[in-house]
Amino acid sequence: GSCAFGIECNSFEEPGNEFRRVGRKHFDTPRNHPLKVFVMKTFRGLANGLGMKLIHDDVAEFFLDVVRRTISHREEINVSRNDFLDLLIKLKNTGRLEADGGDIGQLSFSEIAAQAFIFFTAGFETSSSALTYTL
């Protein structure tokens, strides 16, 4: 939580930590059955109509809320933590990371939340995830 969101979550010392609980729910309860993924990619309209999702609603809401509150807090008190979310906030506000850098384009809140979620999931279970995708 610290390098991505700038939040001290102490997930190593606290097994019941919210970040840990949400991460476990995301990985321990599979929602990506191959047939479901096929339908979602091939027939998007049908998948949307049936309410098919790959991420649990409460997991998505947790990350949306964490990102929303963190961005709001940082912008209100004008704090910079030099972490992943800080880079995304700079892209949201200016469309660039450095003063002399090229204009990449501003990020929306949804794009920031999605990037933060991917960053979290990529680091949650790196060894098992790498082996799973390798197989």
From TrEMBL:
The keyword Chloroplast does not apply. One of its GO terms (molecular function) is oxidoreductase activity, acting on paired donors, with incorporation or reduction of molecular oxygen. It is a peripheral membrane protein. Its main location: endoplasmic reticulum. Keywords: Endoplasmic reticulum, Heme, Iron, Membrane, Metal-binding, Microsome, Monooxygenase, Oxidoreductase. It is found in: Endoplasmic reticulum membrane; Microsome membrane. The keyword Metal-binding applies. Transmembrane segments: none annotated. Pfam families: p450. InterPro entries: Cyt_P450 (IPR001128), Cyt_P450_sf (IPR036396), Insect_CytP450_Detox (IPR050476). Its cofactor is heme. It comes from the Eukaryota. GO terms for cellular component: endoplasmic reticulum membrane. PANTHER family: CYTOCHROME P450 (PTHR24292), CYTOCHROME P450 6BS1 (PTHR24292:SF103). Belongs to the cytochrome P450 family. This is Cytochrome P450 6a9. It comes from Culex pipiens (House mosquito).
